Fold:
Amino acid sequence: MIRCIACTVFTLIGLVGCSQSPVTCVIGQGGGSGGWFAKYTLRPSQPGGACSRKTGEGLGIRKYFPDGQKPLVVVRTDTLGAIALATPDPDPTHSPNSTGNLTQDAPDANNLCTIPTLTKAEQNVGGSDIAYEWSDVKFVVRANVPGTQMSATLRYTEGGCTAEYKAVGMQPNADCFQVDSQGAPVLDAMGNQIPDDTRCGPGSFPQTNVNPDFAVNCDAVLFKCVLTSDPPALKPGVQ
Structure:
């Protein structure tokens, strides 16, 4: 039997500003709008084509506790999740999920819990495979960042080519386009959404629940709140 234990991230709000690390490698968990968002940056000297056009997407991340085993972390991207729901892959060896064992019981001296490699997540679409291979996955685990910032290397395959990215992610997955008093998007003269950095701060409307200690801004292409640097990305003066 596998048990899933949810991480209630914002119940720790009273600990914001405290630098003491949690005892165990907690991982911020969630999917969909309550989950993670990762921004992808293409590494230098990568091939052109479909594989080199990823900019970022939502992630669903779960930590499981298989009986008699080390904890298991599962990552599913929005891309493969949508494909699996729409057109399930008939190949039983393919899975939309990447999985890896969390061998550490507690964060290291740098407040990191690391998973060196995860299994390949893969789905076949129209005779061509789309695949994600994650490695060097690092979760920041400290009292005011309870497993809710991460970085990783991603090898992404699509259209017969494979490209490598740096991935930097945070929980929650928060939109940051301008909205009116009713919560409807405000559009410019060309009918495009308008980025709004204030949506990534405390007291925003609608509330995005971004940790007030995080150093974030609104990505003008993705319209998502993203970290301004590699993790741990914290505001000046935050310990």
Residues 1-18 have pLDDT under 50 and may be disordered. The first strand starts at residue 2 and ends at 4. Residues 78-86 form the longest helix (9 residues). Residues 2-173 form one domain.
